[in-house]
# Entry
Amino acid sequence: MATLVPTSADLLQFFDTTGPTLQSLATATQAMKQLRQDTLALKAGKLAGALIRWPAGNRFAYYRVRSARPLQLEHIPMPTGTALDPEQLAAVRLTDVKSLVDKERRWLQASQR
# Structure
């Protein structure tokens, strides 16, 4: 089961949680590009540092894997994003995260072609 850990300062500096503005969206977009590149650069099977996302309504809830054992996730506070309910997050298993990371990597690789 996943545990939500506080979002680290290295992420918070790029995301303005007071609401979407043009500047905050541009900064968040650049930070997300870097997170996606970091995810692609991870060795196969490695999860820590990977970006994952869940559909939540008409948006996505974004998280970064802090560690696989124990499973810890950091919420990425996108200005236009959302978060999972605590009950949903508590039900997330390591196998779910592995599957999401694999899907995210495949999507990122395909989008770079």
